[in-house]
Predict the 3D structure of the following.
Amino acid sequence: MAKYIALTFVLMKLKGLILFLFWTAAINAAKIDKAYQALKIYDYFKAKQLFYASLKKNKAAAAFGLATIYYRTDNPFHNIDSAHRYINLALQNSYNEKEKQMLAKYNISNLTLTDFREMIFLRAYEYAAKKNTIADYDTYITNYIDAPQHKTAIKKRHALAFSLAKQLDTPDGYQNFMEKYADADEYEEAKQLYESTLFATYTSSGSISAYESFISKYQQSPYINECENAIYALMVVKGTIDEYHDFVKRYPKNHNVETAWHNIYTIFTTDYTAESFQKFKNSFPDYPYTEKVNTDIELSKLILLPIKRNGKWGYCDTSGTVKIDFLYDWCETFTEGLAQIELNNKIGFINKQGLLQIPYQYDEAEKFANGYCLVKLKGKYGIIHKTGKLIVPPDFDEVKTYSEGMVAVKKNKKYGYYDEFGKLVIDCIYDAAGDFYNGLATIVVGGKYGFISKQGNVVIACDYDWAEGYITQTSRVKQNGKFGVINTSGKFTINCTYDFMSEFSEGYALVAVGKKCGFINLKGEIKIPLDYDFTNEIQSQSKFYNGCAKVELKGKQGLIDTSGKYIVPRDYEDIAPFCEGLSAIKKKDKYGYLDKKLKLIIPYSYSAAANFNSGLARVKKDYFYGFIDKKKKLIIAFEFDDATDFKNGYSMLTKNEKMGMIDSKGIFVLNCEYDEISNADEHGFLLLQKNEKIAWFDLVNRKFIWKEEGF
């Protein structure tokens, strides 16, 4: 009985507990229902309170409700991070069967929760993107690891951080970016900018010491080469041999050392002679490329001649052996060890080994002279040096030749000057400009001449109608229509009183006033009175030569000495100064020759006569030229349409529009059968052209070196 009573009591207690549980569940269910009802009518205060109260028993449904409240923006509880926290809580508990049933009661599925979370992800990202701060992106990246926008947020943060680093544009800024964001897409660019700003900051002074310090401290920097280039440029500002050699000795590890040695070598041996190369060896025993010097000594003795085959050009030596193959559209003879070659309408330069020294880039070019060469590019002119350095950029309408280390250039119709180191030292402000002589150059402003120094200072004002350069210590000038002479200080040594004044020859100048002329000395003293007729012929031909000068009076000419005394009486229609002891004279339209004893050695027989040269004189008879000796013997018959005076023992002849050559003995070296003969080589080799074919002829040995096929 007692046992029954006890069991009955336990059952009654259990029944009470079950009733309590059902009652509690009903209450909780009522809370969550009321929460959703409150949410439905936007009573967010009550809904939030009820959802929180239901979290313990109905986590998924209550968390979803709270996530909804925090997601919505029409209430004071809006907080996207809280929405994210509670949607995750809802999802974590949504797989519990009881929670799943409760969610289903409110038509909430797992897909609903997932979609809602995606909406929260997106809105959280939009908030971060709108604020666009690194802190907000950091928060999003930390809190929303599983968001599909997570990678985009990281990229946005990196881009923003990189943008801020670029705004600072300092080495520290880029370094901080790289340390924080090593995985950023912008890392490599940041690294490049770090290196460039570090280099720029560290070397901002532009001093050699700054570049040296940078090289020492940042040996792995990609700007080491640029540092070395800067040091090189600062060390060789003018590009002199001394500057280059100082650089080589001071910076033996600099990558520009080879270039510096090349420039030393090229400048020192500009004339490309064996003597220069040998002298270089003696002067620079530390030169590391001695084999090159030995090679160039041999090459300097090698004579190469341009030759043509099948429309292409190459080079042969004096034996006719091809040394540089037929590769070029055109080529020139070698000067100073370099030759112009043309390919595809561009000009470059090769050395005697056929190696390209200056690339194909110019439209036109002259030969090198004293290490410089005039070039043309796109219609403009400039100057390059043998080292390959551009001295005067091809920006000018005209570029003259160097004189005393200065060259006149023309741009926009005005002239200025570059120095030999490639610096525009005098701006283009003058209407015209001449060469420098004795440190001064003529310039023209408003049609008037004056003189400037190499520094561009006006030394002698532009007060003259004309002025010549100071080839001597004086200059002829013209002022108010009259000629005179000034010294380098601008003071008159001879006043402007003459209508004409020739250049001085043997200390005398022809001067004229009106139609009369005479001669003055360097002091301006009239040594030969103005008693002679001033004619066009006298103006162009009368100057002292071997102590005598031609004068004319009343249509008759004679020769006078420096005292004004007649050497040859004034009896001739035309007369030439004595040359090889004879003077060509003219009477009754015929020429003959007179000796210094005034004896007619060769009678008046010719319609034209030139001076004796190499014992022969060129004379004309019956429309044709020939040559006679001093005994009037006809050495070369009268059968040529034209002929040159003898030079170095040879004369060029023309017959029936064909050219030939003869020596002073009257022996034909070349028959008159060539279209053109030119002294194209300084060593005595002649370039012959016939029917558009070429050949080379050795004048000394009188034999052909090479002939183009079909010549």
